[in-house]
Amino acid sequence: MLAQAISRLRQLGVRITPQRQEVLRVLLEGKQPSTAEEILKKVRSRYPRVSQDTIYRTLATFKKLGLVNELHFSDRCRRFEINIRGDHHHHMVCIQCGNAWKLPDCPLECLMRAKNYYPDFQIEDHSFVIYGYCPKCRGA
Amino acid sequence: MLAQAISRLRQLGVRITPQRQEVLRVLLEGKQPSTAEEILKKVRSRYPRVSQDTIYRTLATFKKLGLVNELHFSDRCRRFEINIRGDHHHHMVCIQCGNAWKLPDCPLECLMRAKNYYPDFQIEDHSFVIYGYCPKCRGA
DNA sequence: GAGTTATTCCGAACAGCTTTCAGTTATTAC
DNA sequence: GTAATAACTGAAAGCTGTTCGGAATAACTC
Hints:
Two copies of one chain form a homodimer. By secondary structure, the first copy, chain A, is α+β, with helices and mostly antiparallel strands. Chain A folds into two domains: 1-86, Winged helix-like DNA-binding domain superfamily/Winged helix DNA-binding domain (Arc Repressor Mutant, subunit A, Orthogonal Bundle); 88-140, Dna Ligase, domain 1 (2-Layer Sandwich). In chain A, 42% of the residues lie in helices and 22% in strands. Chain A is built from six helices and six strands. Chain A has helices at 2-11, 18-29, 36-44, 52-64, 108-117, 135-139, and strands at residues 34-35, 68-72, 78-82, 91-94, 100-102, 122-133. A three-stranded antiparallel beta sheet of chain A has the order 1-3-2. A three-stranded mixed beta sheet of chain A has the order 5-4-6. In chain A, a hairpin with a 5-residue loop joins strand 4 (91-94) and strand 5 (100-102). The relative contact order of chain A is 0.13. At the A-B interface, helix 5 and strand 6 of A face helix 5 and strand 6 of B. Strand 6 of chain A pairs antiparallel with strand 6 of chain B, so a sheet runs across the interface. The first copy, chain A, binds a DNA duplex through helix 4.
């Protein structure tokens, strides 16, 4: 998985630095979409001197290459998630703890209806997010 | 419309200040969900001394009272929209110019499927956004 | 293994938003 | 009306997530 991603980077003519490898590793391991800060923390547990803007720049690079998706939930920070081919999905997000779960499917019907309704709009992307309280945070 | 909203504020025990009335007016006039900065600019054209934090505070108050919806598109700032009863809707947003259009419907099916899939998650809200290029920005 | 050039690190800047606090004002009680 | 008071406002400072500029470093090319 990591090896795959790295060879993909190499193909794309991007330098493979230890920092980038580590960011990739963290993204692949992370089960939740992560904020830059979370990623930084994890990367620093191995490479303590990595600066936060290396993280931001790396994520920007990966995003441009399509290796990573950038997500915006209802808080102020961006989250990043590895983009695995054929794994298009949406999220259910806990307002309390910020954790996210994959939704079982995608509102395709709605997307098609919108397409018919606004035929001249050139659709590029879409997002569906459900907000609420996860089982753990419900009681607390 | 404005009078309605104001009487609703009064019912809720919130003070009716000129600043708040003006924010309401701007929101009711605005056809697009607006950023705090846009709202501030418009409010200042009548009340030049209004501070930005009054805008933020007012919007937070209105949101708490359910008078206003907060939206998150793919950029980093929040947008606000007047919440008219019975007018639940989602948005189609132009990546270029930032304008937004109301979608004809809501991905209810998808929401229900998610509900069945994660029965212990307490759903509070949801958002569906379509991104792309509007007819005007397509060519440019 | 030397050169080149992208990438990294660091400090500081920036944008959007929030807090604090002193002063003002819309509302309530008289 | 008038006074009391709790809610509100404006100004400035502060916070958080993100980006920039430039010198130093190190990955890739030959």
